[in-house]
Amino acid sequence: xxxxxxxxxxxxxxxxxxxxxxLRGARVLRAGRSPDADHQVDLASVRPEELAKTLxxxxxxxxxxxxxxxxxxAVTLAELNTRGxxxxxxxxxxAAPAARLVHLGSAAEYGPGEPGNPVTESAATRPVGPxxxxxxxxxxxxxxxxxxxxxxxxxxxxxxxxxxxxxxxxMTALLRQADRGPDAVLRLGDLSAHRDFVDVxxxxxxxxxxxxxxxxxxxVLNIGSGRAVPVRELVHHLAELAGFRGRIEENAGSGSSVxxxxxxxxxxxxxxxxxxxGWRPLHTLDEALAALWEAxxxx
Length: 299
Description:
InterPro entries: Epimerase_deHydtase, NAD(P)-bd_dom_sf. This is NAD(P)-dependent oxidoreductase. This protein is 38% helix and 18% strand. It is an alpha/beta fold. The strands form four sheets. The protein has a seven-stranded parallel beta sheet with strand order 3-2-1-4-5-6-11, sandwiched between helices. It has a two-stranded parallel ribbon with strand order 7-10. α3 packs parallel to α4 (130-143). The protein is globular. The termini are far apart.
């Protein structure tokens, strides 16, 4: 089985490629902007006919699209999150129409949730900013492309290698540099929001199941933990792992992204993924945070 992973050097993509390499008989090829990739592909700028040539040379049985942008201006987000999937679908129709496409979406496509009610795949989508809107547009492209495709709508990934662009990685980096004595003070933004944190290794496992499922899949499947956790709980747990003995102060007016501030509660129902894939997350949040803290060693 030949599997092409786009965005293979990013946070999710690296874990996905590593997981897929464990499949018996699988040959995993990496595509992306990194010079170390097997195939140089920038979904923000590549033309459909150029990507079709790459796909024809690979002749993949499955393509996993982990490429995307989480930050930047609206143009940057649209180029990778919306144009990218559109170009990929067009190239696949021309060069590898029988390949299965697994595309990584985002729970941000749903927008604000109602506390106590995990959102199902049929819930209304009301993204609050350019990130969620461009991811939703990418999902619309994939689900309407007519290919053998599935969108995995991923919650907030956490675990080894989490980048500083997200809260878990940013908090980890901050704690590595901070004074951890009893007089230390960490001043953060509002930590009252609830999020569905899912271990990145469980996301990679879900991708494996989606790639290898013998039957056609539903257009969209939620991939999360199925529970909403206060962001404050995550922050304090990381502080404990770091041995931080100081004080954490919250300031609602600073340190929180606009996207986070407008979504106070988010949780995904994951029953459809369990039924379709036989998948459920294996790692707890405590295990994910421990792996995140230990990944690079603590000072």
